[in-house]
């Protein structure tokens, strides 16, 4: 039984218990004291339970199909042909990996070796897709930024955003495949930090209202942990508005690094809005207030 199936079945077992349902519904807020002024809504809890239950059952079915595809691959090509990293891929990704391996580093008509995409790049691609990346450049002609942005500090009050190292391989691979001329890369952008800073970030346009659940929260937390230790991650939905994502870091410098990176990203064609939030208001669970630099 794979880890995905095990986690899904564990969640289904949790939903059979009252304490488990409350934990899934409230997430990290489940340990807080009960507030009579804001009682839990039974119907909302049961809707949440049914939604999560359907998602877990679908996840198990999807994993079962994936494992069957892997077994078919083993029988058709031999177990030795499939390595451990390919077991984490989809069937299409595994096929592309085997195709590259069978072709090797072929040389084109000009004597130039064609670039290959490593397994490590594939894992990075999955993380980027979780934050809304769809494999195409920005702009009307899709000629803009393709790879994740990296924050590079230039002085105490500002920094420079540049694309990651794998951008050249990705772009050159596209140029060779499509017979296009190499596009002009965008110039690095200068980011100025706001005056007010803290250990807490508030992010808008990162999660859609119909995506709010413990799984998307975990994905956001994993992405934000790239910049430092995260002590809390809370998704708060304001009626009639988009979801606000609160991320609390252990150190302020980690929150600054996350701000410099995330504020330049887009999700579902929307620019992610990042700002710092009052640590006191966050600790008091006051999520509807203005951020520090909007006051």
Mean pLDDT: 70
Shape: globular
- Tell me the count of domains: 3
Structural class: alpha+beta
Rg measurement, Å: 22 Å
Strand order of the largest sheet: 5-6-4-9
How many strand segments? 9
What is the H/E string? HHHHHEEHEEHEEHEEEH
Unreliable segments of 5+ consecutive residues: 28-32, 107-113, 166-183
Residue share in helices? 40-55%
Alpha plus pi helix count: 9
Question: What gap, in angstroms, lies between the N and C termini?
Answer: 52 Å
Range of strand content: 5-15%
User: Largest sheet, if any?
Assistant: 4 strands, antiparallel
Protein name: G-patch domain-containing protein
InterPro entries: G_patch_dom (IPR000467), Nucleotide-bd_a/b_plait_sf (IPR012677), RBD_domain_sf (IPR035979), RBM17 (IPR040052), RRM_euk-type (IPR003954)
Subcellular location: Nucleus
GO biological process, one term: mRNA cis splicing, via spliceosome
């Amino acid at each position: 039984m794979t880890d995905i199936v095990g986690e899904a079945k564990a969640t289904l077992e949790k939903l059979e218990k009252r304490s488990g349902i409350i934990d899934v519904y409230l997430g990290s807020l489940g340990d807080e004291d009960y507030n009579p002024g804001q009682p839990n809504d039974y119907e909302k809890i049961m809707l949440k339970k049914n939604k999560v239950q359907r998602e877990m059952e679908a996840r198990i079915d999807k994993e079962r199909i994936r494992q069957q595809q892997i077994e078919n691959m083993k029988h058709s090509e031999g177990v030795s042909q499939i390595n451990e990293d390919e077991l984490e891929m989809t069937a299409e990704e595994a096929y592309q990996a085997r195709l590259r391996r069978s072709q090797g580093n072929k040389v084109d008509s000009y004597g130039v070796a064609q670039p290959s995409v490593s397994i490590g790049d594939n894992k990075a691609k999955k993380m980027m897709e979780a934050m809304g990346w769809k494999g195409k450049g920005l702009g009307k002609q899709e000629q803009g930024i393709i790879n994740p942005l990296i924050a590079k500090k230039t002085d105490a009050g500002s920094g420079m955003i540049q694309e990651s190292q794998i951008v050249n391989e990705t772009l050159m691979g596209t140029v060779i495949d499509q017979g296009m001329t190499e596009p002009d890369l965008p110039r690095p952008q200068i980011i100025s930090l706001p005056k007010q800073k803290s250990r807490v970030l508030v992010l808008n346009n990162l999660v859609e209202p119909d995506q709010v659940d413990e799984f998307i929260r975990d994905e956001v937390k994993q992405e934000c942990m790239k910049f430092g230790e995260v002590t809390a991650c809370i998704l708060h939905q304001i009626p009639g508005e988009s979801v606000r994502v609160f991320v609390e870091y252990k150190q302020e410098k980690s929150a600054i690094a996350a701000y410099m990176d995330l504020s330049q990203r887009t999700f579902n064609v929307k620019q992610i809005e990042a700002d710092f939030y009052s640590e006191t208001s966050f600790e008091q669970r006051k999520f509807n207030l203005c951020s520090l630099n909007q006051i």
